[in-house]
Amino acid sequence: MFLSVFDMFKVGIGPSSSHTIGPMVAAAKFLDHLRAQPFKVAGLKASLHGSLAFTGVGHATDRAVILGFAGFRADDYDAAKADAEMVRITAENTVKPEGLGELRFNPKEDLLFDYGPALSGHANGLILKATDAQGDVIIQETYFSIGGGFVLTADELASGKDTYDGPPAPFPFSSAAEMLAMASQSGKSIAEMKRVNERACQPTTDLDKGLTRIWEVMNACIDRGLVTDGILPGGLFVRRRAKGIYDALMAERGINLTAPHTINDYMSTYAMAVNEENAAGGQVVTAPTNGAAGVVPATIRYYLDHVPGATISKVPDFLLTASAIGGLIKFNASISGAECGCQAEVGSAAAMAAGGLAAVLGGTPEQVENAAEIALEHHLGMTCDPVRGLVQVPCIERNGLGAIKAVSAASLAMRGDGVHLVPLDAAIETMRQTGEDMSEKYKETALGGLAVNVPNC
Predict the structure, then answer these.
(1) Domain locations in the chain as residue ranges
(2) By the 8 A CB rule, do 234 and 279 touch?
C-alpha cells in the first residue's frame, strides 16, 4: 500500500474537500473523458446524491461542479476569475471548457439535487452526463467523492482500485504493525521510510520542493486567518474570531499573570484561522480533509513558535510522518465525514498531527505510533453534524480542540517508551466499525445533532 504525501496533503479551496474539491475534480475527470471521445458533445448535465445533495449548498458543491465544467481546477484556483465566470455562465447558460468548445449548461435546469436514497457505493455520489445537439444523453459516468478530495468512478470503487499504480514501494506497510516491524528491521524512522517510498516514484528535488510548498500554503493560510475579521458567508452570520483572539494574545505577551493554559488558546487560534479561511472558500491544504484542515498546520505552528529548539528543517519529517499515519487510516478505515463522521476527519487529523509532532520531538517509531493511537482513540464516536450544512459550526472550534488533543497525545507518548495496551491498528478498526454503526443523520447530512438543535437553523 502506498499513498503519496501529495495525495494526503493537496492544495485546494474551501469549504470542503469531499463536497467542493472532489466534485470539481470529478468534473475535470469527466471533461478529460469527453475529450477522448470521437463524437461531438453539445451540452452537460449533473445530479448530486446522498450527502452531496443534503449539504451541497452549504458546501458550495453546485458551484464546484459548475466551475469544474468550465475548466477550473482546485490546485490553481483563481477566485476573481471564478467569480467572473460564474456571472457569465448564469447569464449565458453555457460553459467553455478547453478543447470542447461552447457547451449548453443551465445551472438551474441541468444541475439536480437528488434528495432520495444515496447511490450504492458511497454517501458522496454524483452523476455527470453529456448530451448531443438534440439534448439526448450520449455518455454518462458516476463518480464518488470518497473524502480528502479523492475521486473514483463507480467502476473503480467497485473494483477496489488502489490510489497508486506505480512501481512497488520499498516499504509497503499497510498496517501500523507492519510499519513498526519495517522500521525495526531497517533501522529507519517512519519519515525516512516514507521518504524512500516517495523517491521511488518521483525525483528527490520534486519531493523537497513539494513539501516546502505544502507548508508554505498551510502557514500562509494561518497568517491570512489571523489578520482577517468579519462575518463568514452562508447565512449563519458566524463571526471570525481568530484575529480577535490572536490580537489579545499578542497584547498579553510578557505579562506575568498570563495563565500557563493560555498556550491552548494559541493552538486553537492557529487552527481556527485556517478553518475560517476554509469556511470563506479560501486556499487551504487538505490535511487530510478541508473540514479538518486546521489541525496539522496548527500543530506545526505550535512546534515552530513555542517549542524550544524547534527548527523548520524538521517540518518535512513532520509532514511525511503525518501522511504515513493518514494513509493507514484511509486504507483501513476512512477519512470521510460522510462515511464515518467527524472521527474520520478531525480524529484522523489529530492522529496525524500527534504522530508528526512526536517524530520531530525525537520520538521513536513506537512513540509515534502511540501518539497517533492516543489522539485517534479519544475522537472515536465523534459525529459530523454541521449546522445548516456549513463547515463552520462545530467544525471551526473542533479543529482547535483537535490540535490541543494532538499535542497532548504526543506529549503523553513521549513520556513513555512506546509500549501501550491499545494498538493504533485496533483504534483504526474501531473507528471503521463505529462509522458503519453510526446513524446516517450523524454523517455529514445535517439531519441530526447540532444541525437540528441550534435555534433558527
Answers:
(1) 17-158, 176-200+202-453
(2) yes
